[in-house]
Amino acid sequence: MLPRLYIIAVSSAAVVAAALAAVETSFQWRQLILFAVLLCCGLGNVEATRRTHYTQGGIVRDMLTVWCLPVAVLLPPFYALIVPAPLMALTQLRVHRGIVYRRVFSAATIALAYAAASWAFRSLPLSVTGTFPGQAGHAVQWCLAVAACDVLAWGINNTLIAAAIRSSDPTARIGELFSREALFGDYVQWTVAILVTLAAAIGPVLLAFAWPTVLVLRRGMMHKQLVSRTRIDPKTGLLNAAAWEREADAAITRALRDGAPLAVALVDIDHFKAVNDQHGHLAGDEVLRAISGRFTQLLRAGDLAGRFGGEEFALLFLDAGAADAHGIAERLRESIAQSPISVGAAGPVETVSVTVSIGVATLGNGTRLTVTDMLAAADSALYRAKNAGRNRTFAVTDTTPPSPLAGSQQDAIAHGEMEADPPDAGGVGSAPGNIRALCPGPAAPGRAFLVAPGTAWSAAARVRASSSASTAAASAGGVVAAGERAHQARAVIRRALARG
């Protein structure tokens, strides 16, 4: 209810402000012509880039405010209050049919922000401002005053948007508004807007030279944002599966070349379906965002976090051996287990306690592995954590591709596999022995490596491979259960197919 009232209040404030400003404005033909020229430039930019589609959700920097600043500085505040409406309307009709109330809210925030900038500019002494920049020292003062007013408008606009985001979802991240990339985009818009305002003040005919520059920058900026967001999972803000695998593959290649340690972890939320069933899918989305935020807080600089779909996440730890990777994973598991998550931003607030199971695989010295191999090993460790009762961390250090099928073995523990008892991890459900380290050694009988990295499998081949894996695993007499081997084989197939 609060977000809806807030949006209505901001939109209504813009309408009321425009009505009051209209009463106080003395309309002049010269001002109307300048407004029409600036508005046509803005509409032309929108129409010329209508094939550059907006991404769903998120903040889009589309250079529209470049045309709002000269309107705010050179014309009365009324014009600043109405100029966003036709720009947003054309964007809605010709570029991207977004959610209407969001578009209206965006127009209202821009209108109020640049109306405030207009009033601020007019409150300065005429010796500093005026409608013409003048020469030498006065031109510098005039440009600095314009720049300061644009910063004021930027601050008001972002504050109104951040308040809307926070009120609609307390767990939402507003850092996107102030990230390095976002600030750089804002800086580009800020500088171009000042130059366009200066050109319009000297003579509107100069806008004919400024318009193509703004058009090219708009296209470049929006394309860059679109490409960047194709790498991001929209629900969590983490890397999506394809982007994570690309970056992880490059990191593994560098680690093998440099002989540096590295680890991959798969994280799965325990009983996530129960969260969706009991609290609803919107609450489940809030849990996903909260856990993603925990990754962002606790991971080190350079580590990669991505969402692999559903409730599964993939992590990559740079320069982390077995002990370091296990420590990082355990800190994540403990933090999530000990910190209940508040859900229900759109209704009654409830507290949900969730845990995660984590499987970790470390890169062996001198072993030539791909990201598919590492994921398969981490997936096997994750299966162990799930099978052991969940809320566990299992780590494997033997990530070498298994040998072909061999004869059966009856021993309880296969040769080359040893169980290690780590220190008590603490937290809910943790106990000594949660982590089993698989040390390098001769391949355990019954181990099968079914898919070479990058191999494409037909549907029939996948069925035969899954069936063979289950049969082979069922006949194995080692410590690994039949279901785990089949699960690992299917995981290898799934990763290879994901890579195309």
Shape: elongated
Class from secondary-structure proportions: alpha+beta
Please state how the strands of the largest beta sheet are arranged side by side.
2-3-1-6-7
Q: Pick out the low-confidence regions.
A: 402-488, 494-500
Number of strands: 7
Radius of gyration: 29 Å
Report on this model:
This protein has helices at 2-24, 29-48, 65-74, 77-82, 84-95, 100-123, 136-168, 180-202, 207-229, 241-258, 272-279, 281-298, 322-337, 371-387, 459-475, 482-498; strands at residues 262-269, 304-309, 312-318, 341-343, 350-352, 356-362, 393-396. It is an alpha+beta fold. The strands form 2 sheets. Strands 2-3-1-6-7 form a 5-stranded mixed sheet, with helices on both faces. Strands 4-5 form a two-stranded antiparallel ribbon. α2 (29-48) runs parallel beside α5 and α8 packs antiparallel against α9. The two termini are 45 Å apart. Residues 402-488 and 494-500 have low confidence and may be disordered.
